[in-house]
Amino acid sequence: MQSLVEVKDLHVRYGRFEAVRGVSFSLGRGEILGIVGESGSGKSTIAKALTGLERPSAGEIAIGAKSVQMVFQDAVGSLNPRMTVASALGEAIAAKKTKRTAAELLALVGLSSAALGQYPRELSGGQCQRVSIARALACDPEVLIADEPVSALDVSVQAKVLNLLRRLREELSLSILLIAHDLAVVRNVCDRVAVMEKGVFVDYGGADEVFGHPKSEYTRRLLAAVPSVF
Ligand SMILES: Nc1ncnc2c1ncn2[C@@H]1O[C@H](COP(=O)(O)OP(=O)(O)OP(=O)(O)O)[C@@H](O)[C@H]1O
Ligand SMILES: [Mg+2]
After folding, report:
1. With a cut of 70, which residues of the chain have pLDDT below it?
2. Does 40 sit in the ligand 1 pocket, CB within 6 Å?
């Protein structure tokens, strides 16, 4: 599998505090890699380093993709409340010179063109997240970094948005880095998984391998906390 993202021994510090301490991973084409871990473990910091929002203090990030886009937890907040869906998508289309129309982008994320004239406040949380994903797709990204894209959504809606990500991976050969709190999310959706604790990966490998035979005590504790799922 061709790697679109290759990270070697990444370190990121905020002043004297080292939030990411020597993390290595790769993301192949059409692959979904999950990063799971407790709050403050450094997941978003990795996403920020990949998108250039934070500079690594050491290590290497090699990105083979032409375009990397990000999707955030707060879908409603990431959309301009004064812009209709048509203008939000139109803006992205104009900026990225994509060949897709707004209606095509909506169709990709399972929304009808009836949404074009609507404002974010007229949409559900799940619909807003679909619109932000559509906007991210405007430039035909090869890699999508989704930082807790379903954490703010109702459980029933979470499954639908996750299914959408899986479908996009199939249809567009999209590579996805999926950051999540919920083990069930990464277990059901991801090909490979990294479990993060205090700035380091304590487990990393195929989803079945990591959850079937966790190396770290931390992963075992996470698994024990959600017995109903496993
Ligand atoms: N801009 C910043 N300045 C200083 N410290 C920061 C900054 N951003 C994050 N941190 C610290 O770095 C650590 C990792 O933060 P990060 O946001 O990467 O965690 P996370 O795993 O994404 O957590 P969450 O699950 O809550 O989103 C935390 O201890 C956090 O307080
Ligand atoms: Mg975070």
Report:
1. 1, 227-230
2. yes
